[in-house]
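Page 42, continued from yesterday. The earlier attempt failed because a stray header line got pasted into the input along with the sequence. Redoing it now with the clean sequence only.
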Amino acid sequence: MELDTRSNYTSHRDWFLSILKGLDVVLCLTSALECLDLFVGYVHESQIDVYSTTPLPYKNVNCFVVENFDNIEIVEIAGIRCTSVNQTFNDLLKYFDIIDEQSFAQGLSDYYYENGESFDELKIDPQYAEIFEEMKDWAIGFYNYG
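This time it went through. Structure tokens are written below.
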């Protein structure tokens, strides 16, 4: 079974609101970047990343099953629950080997420029500090490389 695809909606938030209605989930990873307006998303991409307390039967949902949401920083934006900025970047670093590096770099770049050309307010878990340091320069110059 597959959830409705993004191409039927005018914005990713409209899509998220429609398809997540009634599901006890929290957007995470690239989907959280989109919800936080730190990544524009891909035009025809229909994959969603979520945390859920139960497995979901949808082909286009990358579901990370958690026991509960107690240890996840959650914010609500326009009726959609997603991970906080700090949680999102730490999660992206945690799952760096399976994420889309371009969405990470764009999200980190957008964060940097939206915060006065600074990462100072971002709280990166020390276990991910090395990879974060490796990615910072790419993120800062992200819009100069395209």
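Notes: The radius of gyration is 15 Å.
Reminder to self: strip header lines before submitting.
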